[in-house]
Design goal:
247 residues, alpha+beta, Beta-Lactamase, Arc Repressor Mutant, subunit A, 2 domains, 10 helices, globular
Length: 247
Protein backbone atom coordinates (compact mmCIF):
# COMPACT_ATOMS: atom_id res chain seq x y z
CA UNK A 1 0.00 0.00 0.00
CA UNK A 2 1.42 3.37 -1.06
CA UNK A 3 0.39 5.58 1.85
CA UNK A 4 2.28 8.56 0.47
CA UNK A 5 0.50 8.25 -2.86
CA UNK A 6 -2.91 7.93 -1.20
CA UNK A 7 -2.30 10.97 0.99
CA UNK A 8 -1.20 12.98 -2.04
CA UNK A 9 -4.26 11.94 -4.03
CA UNK A 10 -6.65 12.84 -1.20
CA UNK A 11 -4.89 16.18 -0.70
CA UNK A 12 -5.16 17.11 -4.38
CA UNK A 13 -8.74 16.01 -5.08
CA UNK A 14 -10.62 19.13 -6.01
CA UNK A 15 -13.04 20.53 -8.59
CA UNK A 16 -11.50 21.96 -11.77
CA UNK A 17 -14.02 24.60 -12.95
CA UNK A 18 -13.87 25.16 -16.69
CA UNK A 19 -11.19 22.52 -17.12
CA UNK A 20 -13.34 19.83 -18.76
CA UNK A 21 -13.52 17.91 -15.48
CA UNK A 22 -14.65 18.39 -11.93
CA UNK A 23 -11.87 16.20 -10.56
CA UNK A 24 -8.25 17.10 -10.01
CA UNK A 25 -5.41 14.81 -8.81
CA UNK A 26 -3.41 12.16 -10.63
CA UNK A 27 -5.51 9.12 -11.63
CA UNK A 28 -2.41 7.00 -12.27
CA UNK A 29 -1.13 7.72 -8.76
CA UNK A 30 -4.53 6.87 -7.32
CA UNK A 31 -4.54 3.49 -9.09
CA UNK A 32 -1.07 2.74 -7.74
CA UNK A 33 -2.13 3.68 -4.20
CA UNK A 34 -5.12 1.32 -4.40
CA UNK A 35 -3.12 -1.59 -5.80
CA UNK A 36 -4.94 -1.77 -9.14
CA UNK A 37 -4.03 -1.23 -12.79
CA UNK A 38 -6.56 1.48 -13.51
CA UNK A 39 -9.30 3.69 -12.13
CA UNK A 40 -12.19 5.60 -13.69
CA UNK A 41 -14.91 7.86 -12.31
CA UNK A 42 -18.20 8.45 -14.10
CA UNK A 43 -21.19 10.46 -12.93
CA UNK A 44 -24.77 10.90 -14.07
CA UNK A 45 -25.68 14.57 -14.56
CA UNK A 46 -29.21 15.87 -15.09
CA UNK A 47 -29.36 14.59 -18.67
CA UNK A 48 -29.33 11.00 -17.40
CA UNK A 49 -26.31 10.11 -19.57
CA UNK A 50 -23.19 8.81 -17.84
CA UNK A 51 -20.23 11.16 -18.19
CA UNK A 52 -16.61 10.11 -17.74
CA UNK A 53 -14.86 12.59 -15.47
CA UNK A 54 -11.54 11.07 -14.51
CA UNK A 55 -9.60 7.99 -15.59
CA UNK A 56 -6.23 6.41 -16.12
CA UNK A 57 -5.13 5.93 -19.71
CA UNK A 58 -5.82 2.80 -21.71
CA UNK A 59 -7.91 -0.09 -20.40
CA UNK A 60 -9.96 1.85 -17.83
CA UNK A 61 -11.15 4.33 -20.46
CA UNK A 62 -11.90 1.46 -22.83
CA UNK A 63 -13.93 -0.31 -20.14
CA UNK A 64 -15.92 2.85 -19.40
CA UNK A 65 -16.65 3.34 -23.10
CA UNK A 66 -17.75 -0.29 -23.40
CA UNK A 67 -20.13 0.05 -20.45
CA UNK A 68 -21.52 3.26 -21.87
CA UNK A 69 -21.98 1.76 -25.35
CA UNK A 70 -23.57 -1.48 -24.15
CA UNK A 71 -25.49 -0.10 -21.16
CA UNK A 72 -24.34 -3.00 -18.98
CA UNK A 73 -21.55 -3.79 -16.57
CA UNK A 74 -20.59 -3.03 -12.96
CA UNK A 75 -20.89 0.75 -13.44
CA UNK A 76 -24.53 0.70 -14.63
CA UNK A 77 -25.34 -1.80 -11.85
CA UNK A 78 -23.87 0.49 -9.21
CA UNK A 79 -25.65 3.54 -10.65
CA UNK A 80 -28.98 1.67 -10.50
CA UNK A 81 -28.56 0.07 -7.08
CA UNK A 82 -26.30 2.50 -5.21
CA UNK A 83 -24.36 -0.47 -3.81
CA UNK A 84 -20.85 -1.76 -4.55
CA UNK A 85 -20.19 -4.42 -7.19
CA UNK A 86 -17.04 -6.44 -6.46
CA UNK A 87 -15.97 -9.01 -9.05
CA UNK A 88 -12.65 -10.65 -8.06
CA UNK A 89 -12.61 -13.01 -11.06
CA UNK A 90 -14.29 -11.69 -14.19
CA UNK A 91 -13.73 -14.96 -16.05
CA UNK A 92 -15.85 -16.80 -13.45
CA UNK A 93 -18.90 -14.54 -13.81
CA UNK A 94 -22.02 -16.15 -15.32
CA UNK A 95 -22.24 -15.03 -18.98
CA UNK A 96 -25.87 -14.04 -18.50
CA UNK A 97 -24.94 -11.26 -16.07
CA UNK A 98 -23.32 -9.01 -18.70
CA UNK A 99 -23.61 -11.04 -21.92
CA UNK A 100 -22.22 -8.40 -24.27
CA UNK A 101 -19.69 -6.81 -21.92
CA UNK A 102 -17.96 -9.87 -20.40
CA UNK A 103 -16.23 -11.20 -23.53
CA UNK A 104 -15.12 -7.69 -24.50
CA UNK A 105 -13.76 -6.95 -21.01
CA UNK A 106 -11.86 -10.25 -20.92
CA UNK A 107 -10.38 -9.44 -24.32
CA UNK A 108 -9.04 -6.23 -22.81
CA UNK A 109 -7.17 -8.35 -20.28
CA UNK A 110 -9.27 -7.41 -17.25
CA UNK A 111 -9.20 -10.05 -14.52
CA UNK A 112 -10.99 -8.25 -11.67
CA UNK A 113 -13.29 -5.24 -11.30
CA UNK A 114 -14.27 -3.37 -8.16
CA UNK A 115 -16.94 -0.69 -8.58
CA UNK A 116 -18.00 1.60 -5.72
CA UNK A 117 -20.81 4.17 -5.64
CA UNK A 118 -20.31 7.89 -5.07
CA UNK A 119 -23.12 8.39 -2.58
CA UNK A 120 -24.53 11.59 -1.18
CA UNK A 121 -27.13 10.57 1.38
CA UNK A 122 -29.56 8.32 -0.47
CA UNK A 123 -28.47 9.56 -3.90
CA UNK A 124 -25.89 7.84 -6.10
CA UNK A 125 -24.02 10.51 -8.06
CA UNK A 126 -21.90 8.04 -10.00
CA UNK A 127 -19.30 5.32 -9.59
CA UNK A 128 -15.58 4.74 -9.23
CA UNK A 129 -14.42 1.64 -11.11
CA UNK A 130 -11.13 -0.06 -10.32
CA UNK A 131 -9.78 -2.72 -12.68
CA UNK A 132 -6.86 -5.10 -12.48
CA UNK A 133 -5.38 -7.67 -14.87
CA UNK A 134 -4.77 -10.14 -12.05
CA UNK A 135 -7.81 -11.98 -10.72
CA UNK A 136 -8.38 -12.09 -6.97
CA UNK A 137 -10.12 -10.05 -4.27
CA UNK A 138 -8.98 -6.59 -3.30
CA UNK A 139 -7.20 -6.63 0.06
CA UNK A 140 -9.40 -5.41 2.91
CA UNK A 141 -7.10 -2.46 3.66
CA UNK A 142 -7.08 -1.41 0.00
CA UNK A 143 -10.86 -1.69 -0.21
CA UNK A 144 -11.11 0.55 2.86
CA UNK A 145 -8.79 3.04 1.15
CA UNK A 146 -10.96 2.87 -1.99
CA UNK A 147 -14.04 3.80 0.05
CA UNK A 148 -12.09 6.72 1.52
CA UNK A 149 -11.32 7.92 -2.02
CA UNK A 150 -15.00 7.69 -3.04
CA UNK A 151 -15.98 9.85 -0.06
CA UNK A 152 -13.28 12.37 -0.96
CA UNK A 153 -14.38 12.37 -4.60
CA UNK A 154 -17.99 12.96 -3.65
CA UNK A 155 -16.95 15.84 -1.41
CA UNK A 156 -14.80 17.29 -4.20
CA UNK A 157 -17.68 17.09 -6.67
CA UNK A 158 -20.18 18.87 -4.48
CA UNK A 159 -18.03 21.25 -2.43
CA UNK A 160 -18.42 23.93 -5.11
CA UNK A 161 -22.21 23.89 -5.23
CA UNK A 162 -22.51 26.31 -8.13
CA UNK A 163 -20.09 24.35 -10.32
CA UNK A 164 -21.83 21.04 -9.60
CA UNK A 165 -25.31 22.45 -10.23
CA UNK A 166 -24.18 23.96 -13.53
CA UNK A 167 -22.66 20.62 -14.51
CA UNK A 168 -25.69 18.63 -13.41
CA UNK A 169 -28.01 20.90 -15.40
CA UNK A 170 -26.18 19.66 -18.52
CA UNK A 171 -27.56 22.48 -20.64
CA UNK A 172 -24.18 22.88 -22.33
CA UNK A 173 -22.40 19.57 -22.81
CA UNK A 174 -19.70 20.91 -25.12
CA UNK A 175 -16.98 20.40 -22.47
CA UNK A 176 -17.93 16.78 -21.73
CA UNK A 177 -15.69 13.89 -22.76
CA UNK A 178 -18.77 12.40 -24.42
CA UNK A 179 -20.13 15.67 -25.78
CA UNK A 180 -20.84 14.13 -29.19
CA UNK A 181 -23.00 11.41 -27.58
CA UNK A 182 -25.13 14.01 -25.81
CA UNK A 183 -25.47 15.97 -29.06
CA UNK A 184 -26.14 12.90 -31.22
CA UNK A 185 -28.89 11.72 -28.87
CA UNK A 186 -30.69 15.02 -29.41
CA UNK A 187 -30.23 14.81 -33.18
CA UNK A 188 -31.62 11.25 -33.34
CA UNK A 189 -34.56 12.26 -31.13
CA UNK A 190 -35.54 14.86 -33.73
CA UNK A 191 -34.76 12.75 -36.80
CA UNK A 192 -36.62 9.64 -35.61
CA UNK A 193 -39.31 11.41 -33.60
CA UNK A 194 -38.52 9.50 -30.40
CA UNK A 195 -37.66 10.35 -26.80
CA UNK A 196 -34.09 11.01 -25.73
CA UNK A 197 -34.04 7.68 -23.89
CA UNK A 198 -35.15 5.81 -27.02
CA UNK A 199 -32.67 7.80 -29.12
CA UNK A 200 -29.81 6.65 -26.89
CA UNK A 201 -30.99 3.03 -27.15
CA UNK A 202 -30.99 3.29 -30.95
CA UNK A 203 -27.56 4.87 -30.99
CA UNK A 204 -26.15 2.15 -28.72
CA UNK A 205 -27.76 -0.63 -30.77
CA UNK A 206 -26.38 0.75 -34.02
CA UNK A 207 -22.87 1.14 -32.58
CA UNK A 208 -22.98 -2.43 -31.23
CA UNK A 209 -24.15 -3.89 -34.56
CA UNK A 210 -21.43 -1.99 -36.38
CA UNK A 211 -18.77 -3.03 -33.87
CA UNK A 212 -17.71 0.59 -33.45
CA UNK A 213 -17.18 2.81 -30.38
CA UNK A 214 -20.29 4.75 -29.40
CA UNK A 215 -18.37 8.03 -29.42
CA UNK A 216 -17.22 7.46 -33.00
CA UNK A 217 -20.74 6.71 -34.24
CA UNK A 218 -22.08 9.74 -32.36
CA UNK A 219 -19.59 11.95 -34.17
CA UNK A 220 -20.91 10.59 -37.47
CA UNK A 221 -24.47 11.41 -36.43
CA UNK A 222 -23.55 14.96 -35.42
CA UNK A 223 -21.67 15.42 -38.73
CA UNK A 224 -24.75 14.07 -40.58
CA UNK A 225 -22.83 11.11 -42.00
CA UNK A 226 -25.41 8.83 -40.39
CA UNK A 227 -29.11 9.72 -40.38
CA UNK A 228 -31.81 7.97 -38.32
CA UNK A 229 -35.24 7.83 -39.99
CA UNK A 230 -38.63 7.66 -38.31
CA UNK A 231 -39.27 4.20 -39.78
CA UNK A 232 -38.95 2.00 -36.71
CA UNK A 233 -36.56 -0.91 -37.16
CA UNK A 234 -34.83 0.38 -40.28
CA UNK A 235 -31.06 0.74 -40.39
CA UNK A 236 -29.90 4.36 -40.39
CA UNK A 237 -28.77 5.82 -43.70
CA UNK A 238 -25.04 6.43 -44.10
CA UNK A 239 -23.71 9.27 -46.21
CA UNK A 240 -20.07 8.97 -47.19
CA UNK A 241 -19.94 12.59 -48.21
CA UNK A 242 -21.22 13.74 -44.79
CA UNK A 243 -24.16 16.09 -44.62
CA UNK A 244 -27.86 15.87 -45.46
CA UNK A 245 -30.76 18.19 -45.63
CA UNK A 246 -32.77 18.85 -42.49
CA UNK A 247 -32.02 17.95 -38.87
Amino acid sequence: MALGDLAAVLESLRPVPGGGSLVGADAERCAHALGVDGVAVSVTPGSGLDELLWATRGVSRQLEDLQFTLGQGPGPEVAASGTAVLVPDLSAEPPARWPALLPEALTLGIGAVFCLPLRLGGVCLGAMTLQRARAGPLEKSLLTDAWIVTHALTAALVQDEESWEAFAAAEDSSHFYRAAVHQATGVISVQAGVSLAEALIRLRAYAFRQGRPLLEVAQDVVARRVHFRQDDGDEPDSFAGGGTEGP
